[in-house]
């Protein structure tokens, strides 16, 4: 293709995005659009899969049968989200095995939040309330993103995520209405998950390298800082209802702006975690790589069995 | 009579809870995303069944019990699950072998139990049948895939079948509560389908190109509360929260 032809295609492409048309797998798209989507969608898929581990950690110890069942169902939903997102990603011409390879080699990232440990039952509440809450703020705009398969996956993901968030909040509410010990457990979980949840919305706008391009492709509608503000405005009153305190002495309602003011995020911690040195980065990766490696003989068996069946079918037909 | 019925329900429900607990340990660690989803799904089904049984048992206990009291406040000696379901995951072959050996029995039991004159038990069984037939399809398919897959997978599947075989006979052992309930026509005489069970299992093992174990040495005790050493650890995990923070709402 000549440069002029490519330029022409690019113009048609940009015009389609401007008209809010969905881009579908067989449509022409700029290579950078494809790559950016592979990066973001796979990162999203990986986050769902790694995200099963901190919550999976409490399945065997959930305090009631009802909570155990809800937690199992939630983790199962997450595996399902991972599955849709990998499938959506595969429409861009990359295989799931390649995506796993990127995850296991550390080339691809996943959400920094899952590098924090779940050390009490209340963490199941805090994760649902705060982590899924922040995820929803990030993800709802994606239901209208320009790449069709991603947008459609997000519609289903968002429905289930908001259900999980309510469930998480309900866990917190039960703890906060419970005994002193339970309330202290809830407060402690909020203390530990608050700042990492704010970090989920990404670096500040002046530090965010992908924002401008993502806005153009409607992968993003609002900046990281706007989304973070939205999350804080929505969450602070919920903490009041629970009767527990957000661990930020600078958090205060601002009459003038109509928003909450809040304190400085520890960005050194954020970058440390993103670069692989958070509290559980090593454990999470090890668990995934071990699952993959220990499962190799199982996947090989499934392939070998399928091939044998295929041969038997052919032999029978002839 | 009530006491027998109560104990009878537990002999069925404890199997589901303990197996659900074992499967729950695997979450996020499976060989593929699809098997992870399937195993959590099975775990969730079994837990759902457990809750229905325990709620019923709690009601007839006449002691103001809840499903959670039954799950979290009984000691190891009071648990009536068979030894098979408490066996560790070891590797995927063990998980599949344990599941398959249990599913065949479980489906046979549900099919009988749905005809029980006890309406609650019959209703739980009726709902459970759909789930358990799905479980059996999953586990028997995997027995075949692993058995008739690669040289390595065949070895591993055979290893698991051979190791777990000694727990199969217990499935057909009848405790006093079971015998009483069977005599009253409410419970199921599981010994009746023992030979059908071995026939079906042997057929699938053969199809999976695996050897049917010849060993006639079996182990039992779980149904009477005499468990393997694995059980204490399993309950320590299961009951940790309720033991540490008693009498609270979660």
Can you characterise this structure?
- The complex is a heterodimer of chains A (318) and B (250).
- With 318 residues, chain A is mainly alpha-helical.
- Chain A has 13 helices and two strands.
- Chain A has helices spanning 3-18, 31-50, 52-56, 65-90, 96-104, 122-139, 148-176, 180-199, 211-216, 224-242, 267-277, 281-294, 296-317, and strands at residues 252-254, 259-261.
- A two-stranded antiparallel ribbon of chain A has the order 1-2.
- Chain A is globular and about 75 Å long.
- Chain B has helices at residues 2-24, 33-61, 67-72, 83-86, 92-113, 119-147, 151-164, 176-183, 194-207, 230-244.
- Chain B is mainly α.
- Chain B has one domain (2-244): Up-down Bundle (Ferritin).
- Classes of the chains: A mainly alpha (318), B mainly alpha (250).
- The interface between A and B is large, with 49 and 47 residues.
- Chain B: Pfam families: PaaA_PaaC (PF05138).
- Chain B: It comes from Aequorivita echinoideorum.
- Number-wise, the strands of chain A total 2
So what's the CATH class of chain B?
Answer: Mainly Alpha
The CATH superfamily of chain B is: Ferritin, core subunit, four-helix bundle
* Mean pLDDT across every amino acid position of chain A: 95
Helical/strand content category of chain B: mainly alpha
* Oligomer type: heterodimer
Strand content of chain A: under 5%
Mean model confidence by pLDDT of chain B: 96
Query: Separation of termini of chain A?
Result: 46 Å
Tell me roughly what share of residues is in helical segments of chain B: 55-70%
Percentage beta strand of chain B: under 5%
Instruction: Please state the structural category of chain A.
Output: mainly alpha
Give helix and strand order of chain A, one letter per element, not per position. HHHHHHHHHHEEHHH
Summarize the structure.
The complex is a heterodimer of chains A (318) and B (250). With 318 residues, chain A is mainly alpha-helical.
């Amino acid at each position: 293709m000549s440069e002029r032809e490519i330029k022409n295609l690019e113009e048609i492409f940009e015009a389609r995005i401007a008209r809010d048309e969905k881009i579908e797998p067989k449509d022409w798209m700029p290579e950078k659009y494809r790559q950016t989507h592979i990066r973001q969608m796979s990162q999203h898929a990986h986050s769902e899969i790694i995200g099963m581990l901190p919550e999976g950690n409490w399945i065997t110890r959930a305090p009631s049968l009802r909570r155990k069942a809800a937690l199992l169902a939630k983790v199962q939903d997450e595996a399902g989200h991972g599955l849709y997102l990998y499938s959506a990603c595969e429409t861009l011409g990359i295989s799931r095995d390649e995506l796993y390879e990127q995850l296991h080699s550390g080339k691809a990232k996943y959400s920094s939040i899952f590098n924090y440990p779940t050390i009490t039952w209340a963490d199941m509440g805090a994760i649902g309330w705060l982590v899924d809450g922040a995820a929803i703020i990030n993800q709802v705009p994606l239901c209208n993103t320009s790449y069709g398969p991603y947008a459609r996956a997000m519609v289903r993901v968002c429905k289930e995520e908001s259900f999980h968030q309510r469930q998480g909040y309900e866990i917190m509410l039960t703890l906060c209405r419970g005994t002193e010990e339970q309330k202290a457990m809830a407060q402690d979980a909020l203390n530990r998950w608050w700042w990492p949840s704010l970090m989920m919305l990404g670096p500040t706008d002046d530090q965010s390298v992908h924002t401008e391009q993502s806005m153009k492709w409607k992968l993003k509608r609002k900046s990281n800082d706007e989304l973070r503000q939205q999350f804080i405005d929505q969450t602070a009153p919920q903490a009041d209802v629970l009767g527990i305190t957000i661990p930020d002495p600078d958090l205060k309602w601002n009459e003038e702006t109509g928003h909450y003011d809040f304190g400085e995020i520890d960005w050194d911690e954020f970058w440390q975690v993103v670069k692989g040195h958070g509290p559980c980065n090593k454990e999470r990766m090890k668990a995934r790589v071990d699952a993959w490696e220990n499962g190799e003989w199982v996947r090989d068996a499934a392939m070998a069995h399928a091939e044998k069946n295929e041969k038997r079918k052919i032999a029978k037909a002839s | 009579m009530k006491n027998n019925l109560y104990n009878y329900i537990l002999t069925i429900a404890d199997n589901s809870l303990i197996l659900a607990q074992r499967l729950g340990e695997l979450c996020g660690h499976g060989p593929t995303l699809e098997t992870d989803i399937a195993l959590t799904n099975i775990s969730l089904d079994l837990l759902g069944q457990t809750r229905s049984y325990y709620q019923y048992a709690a009601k007839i206990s006449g002691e103001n019990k809840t499903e959670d009291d039954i799950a979290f406040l009984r000691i190891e000696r009071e648990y009536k699950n068979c030894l098979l379901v408490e066996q560790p995951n070891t590797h995927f072959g063990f998980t599949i072998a344990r599941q398959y050996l249990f599913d065949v029995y479980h489906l046979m039991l549900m099919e009988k139990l749905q005809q029980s004159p006890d309406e609650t038990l019959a209703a739980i069984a009726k709902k459970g049948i759909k789930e358990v037939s799905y479980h059996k399809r999953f586990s028997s398919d995997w027995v075949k895939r692993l058995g008739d897959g690669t040289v390595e997978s065949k070895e591993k599947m055979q290893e698991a079948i051979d190791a777990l075989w000694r727990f199969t006979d217990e499935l057909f052992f009848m405790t006093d509560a079971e015998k009483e309930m069977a005599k009253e026509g409410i419970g199921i005489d599981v010994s009746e389908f023992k030979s059908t069970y071995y026939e079906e299992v042997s057929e699938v093992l053969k199809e999976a190109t695996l050897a049917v174990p010849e060993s006639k040495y079996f182990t039992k005790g779980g149904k009477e509360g005499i468990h393997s050493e694995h059980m204490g650890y399993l309950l320590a995990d299961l009951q940790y929260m309720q033991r540490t923070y008693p009498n609270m709402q979660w």
